[in-house]
Design a protein that fits this description.
This protein is an all-alpha fold.
Length: about 80
């Protein structure tokens, strides 16, 4: 067990081995990629919302009437 502790202490992590400027570049790249992903998800959400609105516009009267929760027999 003492040998295992010694081995783990002797091994340096990747963070310790990398140059600090390279580590900062990687962190900046990670932030940029995360920001790009957020923008992409927002664009996809907007596209789905627009497609839903367009589909709602193109519905026929029969489809709109069928989706209505009102009991139209009461209004006769």
């Amino acid at each position: 067990m003492a040998k295992q502790k010694k081995k783990s202490e002797d091994q340096l992590s990747l963070k310790d081995q990398l140059d600090t400027s390279l580590l900062e570049q990687l962190k900046q790249k990670k932030k940029a990629l995360e920001a790009k992903e957020v923008v992409k998800q927002e664009e996809e959400r907007k596209k789905r919302e627009e497609a839903r609105k367009q589909a709602e516009k193109n519905k026929t009267f029969e489809q709109l009437l069928g989706e209505s929760d009102l009991n139209w027999k009461q209004f006769k």
